Amino acid sequence: MSAHSITEPSNGQKWLAGVLVAAYAIITILPLLWIIATGFKSSPDAIAYPPKVLFQPTLEGYVNLFTTQTRQSAEFLAENPPTTWYEEIVHDKGMVIAGPSRFGERFMNSVIIGFGATFLSVVLGTLAAYAFSRYRVPLKDDLLFFILSTRMMPPIAVAIPIFLMFRNIGLSDTHAGMILLYTAVNLSLAVWLLKGFIDEIPREYEEAALIDGYTRFQAFVKVVLPQATTGIAATAIFCLIFSWNEYAFAVLLTSGTAQTAPPFIPTIIGVGGQDWPAVAAGATIFLVPVMVFTILLRKHLLRGITFGAVRK
Amino acid sequence: MSQLSMDSVARATPPRLSRRIRGLSDRTIAWLFIAPTIFLLLAVNIFPLIWTIRLSFTNFAANRPNAEVQWVGLRNYQRILTDPDTWATMQATAHFLIWTILLQVLIGFTLAWLINRKFRGNDLWTTIIVLPMMLSPAVVGNFWTLLYQPQIGLFNSIVAFLTGADPTSFSMIGDVDLAPWAIIIVDTWMWTPFVMLICLAGLRSIPESIYEAAECDRASKWRQFWTITVPMVLPFLMLAVLFRGIENFKMFDLVVQLTGGGPGNTTTLTSIELKREAFEKWRTGYSSAYAVILFVTVFGLASIYVKALNRVKDR
Fold this sequence. Notes:
- The complex is a heterodimer of chains A (312) and B (315).
- Chain A contains 16 helices and 4 strands.
- With 312 residues, chain A is mainly alpha-helical.
- Chain A folds into 3 domains: 16-57, no CATH class; 59-101, no CATH class; 104-305, Orthogonal Bundle (MetI-like fold), CATH 1.10.3720.
- In chain A, the strands form 2 sheets. A two-stranded antiparallel sheet of chain A has the order 1-2. Chain A has a two-stranded antiparallel sheet with strand order 3-4.
- In chain A, helix 6 packs across helix 12 (229-245), helix 7 packs across helix 9 and helix 9 (175-199) runs antiparallel to helix 12.
- The two termini of chain A are 21 Å apart.
- In chain B, helix 5 runs antiparallel to helix 11 and helix 13 runs antiparallel to helix 14 (284-314).
- Chain B is globular.
- The termini of chain B are far apart.
- At the A-B interface, helix 1, helix 6, helix 7, helix 8 and helix 9 of A face helix 1, helix 2, helix 3, helix 5 and helix 6 of B.
């Protein structure tokens, strides 16, 4: 900026605004830092009074998260010395590792269902969004509103008949069932977001392609899709985060084979109540990828959370 | 020239599939592209909705699929609407909705207004502030129960440090008076950035020239704020309120993990009540009627609100 604009805030104002925003940011990040820190605490440190800010870090929580353990007699422990670092941590508490815990499985379920649903919703969403963007579809506005309105229903309200429907056709507690369900939930977002992105691609590119002898379909695949890559990627990440975080359907419709991580993590218990270091370790593993994606997505964040209603 | 077009014809010579697609009219392609989406939404949303409406007139119980199902007419609706517990639940939901929206609008707008001062490093701070919004409410809500523990919880310790109160003297999620505020605090922590981002977009959409003109007319900063900033951000703010309103009316995961609806029924929001009726007491018919009432309420309120929003936008 050349001359000092009359509407530009003064330096003092900027400084004060900066301090206030930074203070809020630090307060807001505290609970998240606390989750990450608790994952590295020993059980007594995690529930110490007063809460401990400085502590001796340990991987106990992570070991507890991934293993199941049983208590053993002193002789048994003496006869079977630990051979790995994680066995040693468990050994020091008078326990031995009995086997892997369910966490790995649940985490993989989240990955399979999340990516499956994301893939399907992006594919279906791109097709629908392209049609809505480029063709004259009868009742277009009504259809678009219908697609959006499917989001207004409380998940529990839809869960009752879906529970019955899935039970009848054998989809309850299966990956396929959850993928279909999350695809349907994500579709409204995918269609609305992608329509916005495709609207922004000038029609002239396709028209030029059509004149060159491309068919409509070829123009879509070879001209529109490459142009829409950023939009499709952003949409995919939003769909992934939503299916990743979903809890209501997961807790009601899955119990064993297809249960995802969000209903599982709060049920991690140790001796006498929740095993907070293990819960925090699970939460950290589960939340950190989303934090990374959020940082990567920050330019499209606003668009994603408002279904494309607000663009910067 | 002819060489070139021959070339492109050769390149475009279609395999069988695209030959078939080439033959399709635009109209057919449009429907072909839209149909899977509409079909899936019909199957997973509309079909269940119709089923719910049908069940709401019966005494069906999902845990006794073989029992005889009786048609009970409007009795489920009548029982829900005359049950004082329903109104207590609605009140708890309204309390939660009003306060979360109020706090999030106030804090969110203030933050956006501050961030719009364009100080150095505001991108970094904005990114940090936004983080909680994208995380799993169930996992985070569960962890907040540790933060809220009397004695060992970080929240109580900080409040004790700031006010000098005894950290063991209050329990945010165990106390009947505090529990409704416990869920409001966590929801506000999570979702204020949502309102903030939308307000920021609103503030950034105001052209600088309007302020410059006002400055030339010697309008005070205060006057500029109320006559330029607020009216121009209002449509954005209303949109944010619409989203938060719908989301919080449906609120389930965060609160179920934080308080489970307790203590007593103080934080039993409509979705939690619905879950108890449908999946713990297995009164499927009754809870279907409850679901229909909720859907009509949210749809009705949202429609009225969208009309108001459009009026503000057109102004």
